Amino acid sequence: MENGNGTATCQREGCGKSHTHTLDEGEVTKKSSYEDTGVKTYHCKEADCNYTKTEDIAATGHTWHTWDAGKTTTKATCTKAGVTTYTCTACGATRTEPIAATGHNWDDGKITTKASCDHTGVKTYTCKTCGDTRTETIAMLEHTWDDGQVTTKPTCIEKGIRTYTCKVCKATKTEDIEATGHDYKVKDHKDATCTEDGYTTSVCKNCGDEKKETIKATGHDWNKGEVTTKATCTEAGVMTYTCNVCKETKTEEIEATGHQHTEIRDKKDATCTETGYTGDTYCKDCDTKLSDGKEIPATGHQNKEVRDKKAATCTKAGYTGNTYCKDCGELLKTGKETDALGHTWGKGKVTRKSTYTAAGQITYICSRCGKKRVITTKKLFYPKAGTKYTVAGCQYKVIKAGAEVSLVGTNKNAKSVTIPAVIKVKGVTYKVTSIGTKAFNGSKKLTKVTVGANIKKISNNAFFKCKSLKTVTIKSVLLTKKTASKRAFKGISRNMVMKVPKKMKKVYVKIFKGLKVK
After folding, report:
1. Burial tier of 176 (Cβ tally within 10 Å: 0-12, 13-18, 19+)
2. What are phi and psi of 508, to 5 degrees?
3. pLDDT tens digits along 158-170
């Protein structure tokens, strides 16, 4: 029988012996796993003793899982994420990772509502996968405005209004027309004098507004003045000024001159061997002696000069000259000969510019001796055909190098245009012989045109839609049916009058049939 203190008593009848349990090494009766504990059982070694003892064996566990390749357990859609499940090949544990939503696969879209100038449009896109749709707004179109109409005329001080209407949706917008400003005419005038203000009164021709402007007094216009009392060395003088307009006078004091004009008297120059005297100082105006002179010691040979000096030229040798005492004339030093210098030409000067008809010249002048050397330069090339120039607001294109140009464009704001017989550009004189297609196109303000005497051709549509054009004066007698026709004046007013040379009237009536030719 187990006593509970590590001993046991035999219960056989008549025995009653007790012993201490001696346990064996034990055996694993349940193996442990990654998660579950195991069991180790020990037995008492005594014969006929059935005593046993058990101990737990800790679960083995593991530091990392060995995951399989995973399996999609929930598929991803366009908007919802899916799930991938991974299983540990050692313990059977599982983990999950999300699969990103695929996103919509939109088609190229279809315009379901067209945009116009009064509303936006709509473009609808459909997902190729799930059929969902989305929309984008198409911006409104710009209005197509007409040329506008003056709905309120401007006055001298108030702006007018020009109203524009959309050709598509009839919407309108307005723009201010600047006030014309007053057009004043002088009503009364008084000139200003030297001391009194003048004025000018003006009245507006259009609205009658009157304004008066003050003309400030001019102030005196003094002459250069006249010395009425001369100043002396010790006394002030008087300068009198007279107004050139009103003859009023004013005076200014002229300061005493002081002893300004002096001279030296009894002066004697020192020589190489004799003393001199600086001389006494006198005022030339009042003859007052101002100061005494002093004795000057003999100079010795101090004042020297070079004689017989000859400068070297470009081609001839020079001479440094002999040194003499200027006072006593003694020769102090003999000079030496110097070499000829040679010419120094410098950069040269264009003495005759090259032109399109004649060669030019560059003249070089030696800076020392003035000798000239002339080099001839080549003639200029005429600007090629197609070259464009702008003269007096008109555009011309060269059609024959050095000889002829065509008028191809004008100032669109000009009211009157005169096409000259010739133009001169960069020294070249060109005949203006033709007017190009649409040369005056867009000239809405044009009312008068004079065509020069050298025009041989007027292209079709040259004056296209010049609806304000009233008078065309043609001085040329060179136009023919092949080089001009009424098609040049397509879209103009029916009231336009064409003035032509008297001797060409019959010819030009036929050429410009349907137009008013006088």
Report:
1. exposed
2. -75, -25
3. 898 999 999 888 8
Cβ-contact 20, 13 below 8 angstroms = no
* Buried b or exposed e, range 213-232, using 16+ CB within 10 angstroms: eeeeebebeeeebeeeeebe
Q: Is residue 480 part of a domain?
A: yes
Who contacts 381 (Cβ-Cβ below 8 Å, separation ≥6)?
A: 356
* Rg (alpha carbons) of the chain, rounded to whole number: 61
Number of domains in the chain: 1
Chain-centroid distance, C-alpha 453: 43
**What CATH number corresponds to the domain at position 438?**
3.80.10.10
Task: Indicate the helix (H) or strand (E) that contains 394.
Answer: strand 394-400
Q: Does residue 492 form part of some domain?
A: yes
pLDDT tens profile 164-191: 999 888 888 889 989 888 888 988 898 8
pTM above 0.85, yes or no: no
Range(s) of the domain holding residue 448: 388-517
| 450 within domain boundaries | yes
Instruction: Tell me the pLDDT tens digit for each residue of 450-481.
Output: 999 999 999 999 999 899 999 999 999 999 99
22 within a domain of the structure (yes/no): no
Nearest one of 418, 416, 472, 471 to 445, comparing CA atoms: 416
